[in-house]
Amino acid sequence: MRRQLQLIYKILYSHFGPQRWWPAESAFEVMVGAILTQNTNWGNVSRAIDNLRQNKLITPNKLYKLPQERLALLIRPTGYYNIKAKRLREFLRFFLKNYKGSISRISRERIWRLREFLLAIKGIGPETADSIMLYALNKPVFVIDTYTKRILLRHGFISPDFGYAEVQNLFMKNLKPQAGLFNEFHALLVRLAKEYCLKDNPKCHSCPLKGILRA
Q1: What pLDDT is attached to residue 215?
Q2: Could you give the CA distance from residue 85 to residue 76 in angstroms, rounded to a whole number?
Q3: Are residues 45 and 129 both part of a single domain?
């Protein structure tokens, strides 16, 4: 498994090059984006982030002080904006209360302790929590999403009944715990899923991973 994952990474990196994900101007902006991207595409999140930037609101204190109704209107492009406004405020309350809105303070928290704290926040599940830890805080935690599961399933690495933790363990137990590696690998898998391993009518004949199956 270790060699196959390393091979997949090598092939994808050679094919696509570095992805430089997550596109954001600050670690806090990544946190906000990780919550807003739930059940929507990045284009919609980008429009919402632009709204917040234009209003100079990309700070924990400013966002938290903003009336929830106003926040919901600004993030409307992401869909489910009333729910997401509540979730974002719940996260902000946690972030300000426990870390005073400081990236350096929250970054010093132990990985699994922080993950437990994040998962206790209403509306934050494993994927969102891990995205915050990996992409915003540079913690070596592999993010699992629909794209990753689709690729692994089609190439025989997992079965349909695999849960989030089981899929995550495939990467965590077989790769060096390096945030940079996890970041790039996950971003490459997302790129592959969007361009080749499509939900409908996948381009298997031209896929860079054509012929790569679990031994």
Answers
A1: 56
A2: 9
A3: yes
